[in-house]
Amino acid sequence: MKKMMGLDLGDAWVGIATSDYMKIAAKPLKTFATAAFDQGLIKLLAQEPIEVIVVGLPITVGGGTDSDQTRTIRAEAVRLEALVLEKGFTDIKWVLWDERLSSKRAASVGKRPENKEEKLMQHAKAAAFVLQNYLDHLSFIAS
Questions:
Q1: Which pTM was predicted?
Q2: In the structure, what pLDDT confidence band is assigned to residue 35 with cuts at 50, 70 and 90?
Q3: Cα–Cα separations (whole angstroms), residue 25 to 94, 97, 98, 130, 135
Q4: Is 11 in a helix, a strand, or coil?
Q5: Strand order in the sheet with 26-33
Q6: Choosing a second label site near 29 at 20 to 30 A (CA), which of 4, 18, 42, 88?
Q7: Alpha carbon distance 30, 39 (integer Å)
Q8: What top-level class would CATH report for the domain 3-15+28-142?
Q9: Whole-angstrom Cα distance, residue 18 to residue 24?
Q10: From CA 9, how far away is CA 126, in angstroms rounded?
Q11: Virtual CA dihedral for 96, 98, 100, 103, nearest 10 degrees?
């Protein structure tokens, strides 16, 4: 069995979450500096059996349309998919998933971050919210 991975792509940081093998629950995994993410992603894919990568797509809250950031994330997802294919991970499916308000939800859950490490985990929590939303969607359409 394989897992799913969620990504919250940001300008400075990338949050990563993974599902369990049953694809029921998502949990925050790690946050990378954007500059180190390519190498970190390839290393994680070599360690974790992943079949789907869900990328959070920042669609505008008001109108549900694309913004400059939405277009940036779409382009980055295409670039990352090409990188992953180039490195030999050929059977991973990529999904762009609406992430509206996931970062705000991640910041509102639990205690207030007290140090840099806890603040960085907010990005991984946002990725977990995106992935969990996708997992819930799959569960809903399967029932």
A1: 0.88
A2: very high
A3: 19, 16, 18, 11, 7
A4: coil
A5: 26-33, 13-19, 3-9, 50-57, 93-98
A6: 88
A7: 13
A8: alpha beta
A9: 11
A10: 10
A11: -40
